[in-house]
Amino acid sequence: MNTTDNDHGLRVWFFQAAGSDYKGESSNTWGGTSHRAIGQDVNLYDTVNNYFQITGVQLEVGDTATPFEHRSYGDELARCQRYAYVIEDNNISSANAMTGLGFWNTTTQARNFLQYPVTMRTIPTFSVDSLSNITQLQVGVDYHAVTAASTVSETNITSMLFITTSTNGTAADVTACRVENGGKVIIDAEL
């Protein structure tokens, strides 16, 4: 059960139907892959109006069950965002996904800061699927393509240095960057 490689340590399956090859013989012993649906005699797909409902599933470590934890969607999202935070342009509106605010260092370099919604579990890695999907926004209206980027990350914030080929930036002016063209930025603090 305890595995430290890419093999499966544990699988939990909820069968709605199973053929006789998967039903096995006994429900009180560990079985092989052919015993996935022990005791399964119901076929939820045999009638149009059948349904499957599930709630209150909690996987426990050890021999003692603890009370079920009722977490809100916001709490669960915050727990997940400690491991990964993704900003992406979903092409739903022209507003695009704003990534960070900052300032122009020079006429071709802008420093932007991205504050995470929650503190990451460790210093994350920062990746962009394509620099062509990131643009600079200078003082409200003029957009400039990014040709290079570098980042310095902490558990709460990433500082991004973007370089453009255009020379329309003015040092000390406010800037923002955004994700567009279906692109995404991934801040990853996975285990």
Any chance you could write out the topology, listing elements then pairs?
Elements: H1 73-81, E1 84-88, E2 97-104, E3 109-115, E4 125-128, E5 134-138, E6 142-153, E7 157-164, E8 174-179, E9 184-188
Antiparallel strand pairs: 1-9, 2-3, 2-8, 3-7, 4-9, 5-6, 5-8, 6-7
Q: What would your notes on this structure say?
A:
With 191 residues, the protein is mainly beta. It folds into 2 domains: 9-70, no CATH class; 83-188, Sandwich (Immunoglobulin-like), CATH 2.60.40. Helices cover 5% and strands 31% of the residues. The chain has 1 helix and 9 strands; from the N terminus they run H-E-E-E-E-E-E-E-E-E. Strands 2-3-7-6-5-8 form a 6-stranded antiparallel beta barrel. Strands 1-9-4 form a 3-stranded antiparallel β-sheet, with no helix packed on it. A hairpin with a 3-residue loop joins strand 6 and strand 7 (157-164). The longest helix has 9 residues, at 73-81. It is elongated.
Quick take:
The protein is mainly beta and 191 residues long. The protein has 1 helix and 9 strands.
The CATH topology of the largest domain: Immunoglobulin-like
Number of domains: 2
Radius of gyration, in angstroms, nearest whole number: 25 Å
So, CATH architecture of the largest domain?
Answer: Sandwich
The total count of helices amounts to 1
